[in-house]
Specification:
This protein has two domains: 3-75 and 284-433, no CATH class; 94-269, no CATH class. It has 19 helices and ten strands. The chain has a six-stranded mixed barrel. With 436 residues, it is α+β, with helices and mostly antiparallel strands. The chain is elongated and about 110 Å long. Helices cover 56% and strands 19% of the residues.
Length: 436
Amino acid sequence: MAVGTAVDQQEATSGSGPVIRPFSTFERLVAWRYLRARRKEAFISVIAGFSFIGIMLGVATLIIVMAVMNGFRTELVSRILGINGHIIVQPVDGPFTDYPALTEKLSAVPGIKMALPLVEGQVLASSQAGGNTGALVRGARAEDLTKLKTISGNIKSGDMVGFAAGDGLLIGSRMAAQLGLRVGDLITLTSPEGDITPLGVNPRIKSYKVSGIFEIGMSEYDASIIYMPLEEAQLYFNADGLVQSIELFVDNPDDIDNLRPKLEEAAGRQIFLTDWRQRNQTFFSALQVERNVMFMILTLIVIVAALNIISGLIMLVKDKGSDIAILRTMGASSGAIMRIFFMTGAAIGIVGTLAGVALGVVVCVNIESIREFFSWVSGTVLFDPELYFLSQLPAEMNFGETLSVVVMALGLSFIATIIPAWRASRLDPVQALRYE
């Protein structure tokens, strides 16, 4: 009977004799010894080092990119839905002349946080300094705007007293900077839908005092939104006694479908409902596609690192051929040899993945400070609010995504070790020792 099978038989027996279990102390000791390459095996150690660095950077990059994209989506959704309702209610059978009663009915539906009747219109805003810009005027009641914390909680200068009194407007900070306006200054609004005369429609031009300046943090809104008292907006846009739509803010934006029949029943009239998913479907679909594509592209980094593990282990097996043969002749089974080299490669993947997670978490937690540092070093703006609509770089780690990155990296690392470990276990001791 061959010597190499003695341990195999001993493993299969039960009783008082010693039993060698998978991943035993002996196997872990040999695997750890192979990870600490000697000077003549420095090249193999370098390959293992590159594999470790590749997996670490790949995992960290995936976590950081996914966190930043999650942060983008969360910030954009909160900013977009913070100023716009989750559900837009529009009339079908006639204008909303009964909007006060209808607003009360819709607000009473369970799950509705607030109902906001609105009058909207496009205008040209100009100042006495000579600046002008296009703007969207939104007419709203003062009590409703007070509940809308995205606006009332972000007033940087002035207050809502003039707005509540009906003789002042609220404008965004970027519009105020562009037009050179401060609280108390006059802003002139020009609407193409003015008075009808025998000669045609005359543009309506009227000046208002700036009561307050708000800053949402999304440059597109801060540069283009004007809030006007509802009664004044009805007069300005020839919509006396009616509103164009009612925006509903809900407790759970993902529960829109369950609220639709309740709202239609509560309204008691024909209405047309449009939710936030329909209005922003293209935008959020593009974000989702971009996230998926980025995940697939960045996964290639981890795959390349896993291929480095394969090459490093194959070279290690080639170099340790005589050692493997000696271990086999001393009684080590082919399974033990396979587990030894499996642990050698898996250790690189495990440690690299854990280091990548740690690096990714550190970067995500301090991403704004890192951005400011690199902006200071390069002397350029790395995250321009004018382009990205946000005042700072967001990052929001998701436990499920982070776990999927870890599982993917560990899975690729384990798969990469199987082929070299299997080749090591199939090595013939006689052939390996023939020329030793």
